[in-house]
Amino acid sequence: MSPTELAKCRRVLAAVLAVAASSGHARDAHAHPHVWATVRSEIILDANRQITGVRHAWTFDEMYSAMAVQGLDANGDGVFSPEELKPLTEVNINSLKEFDYFTFVHVGDADALPLKPPENASLDYDKSLLTLHFTLALDKPLNTYSQEVQVDVYDPSFFVAFGFATEAPVTLSGPAVKGCAAEVKKPDPDTEEGAKALSESFFSQLGPNSNFGSQFAQTVTVKCSDAPS
Hints:
Elements: H1 3-10, H2 16-22, E1 35-45, E2 50-60, H3 62-68, H4 82-96, E3 103-106, E4 119-126, E5 129-143, E6 149-153, E7 160-164, E8 170-173, E9 180-185, H5 189-196, H6 200-204, E10 218-224
Parallel strand pairs: 1-7, 1-8
Antiparallel strand pairs: 1-2, 2-5, 3-6, 4-5, 6-10, 9-10
């Protein structure tokens, strides 16, 4: 793989449309999705049971992981250190900004709330799998005891398929989480299977504002039973 091709592939999380046309490492060149990510999320609440942020850990499939780390083992010791993975971390985090970090926090049908730039971003590589860690803070804390708050994780283009882990997919953290609960809602599996049969030309015709992937959103609903005492 040439350096140019490798650079394009490493931007797969952001430049989804460009990579869809050029990536030679997709599992199926004629169908979406091309990258799979297992999601574990931590919903951060303050003492007033308000959501202040979301801490993500996204573990990517083995094929993407192997491709993404090519050439990054600078000292040839077979281990990818945090320093060696730092440039890849920065590329992913900086590029994801344009796509709202594939994270959408909202109440009901309201628009997604603003998020601050990511904090504590890092990558680790373990057992042939690459995991991206980062924390997104809300611009303003959001009440959970008077309403259900939804946290959606999805790629609007469906180039990347996000799925919550089967074990411990979501946790709540903070000084006052008693009486609060988080429930994971998964998309209709039949709908997702149908999308996989669509041709690449279908996805290439989607406009820049298309939100096709929203129907495959992995959603966490957070609600507290009462106000903090």
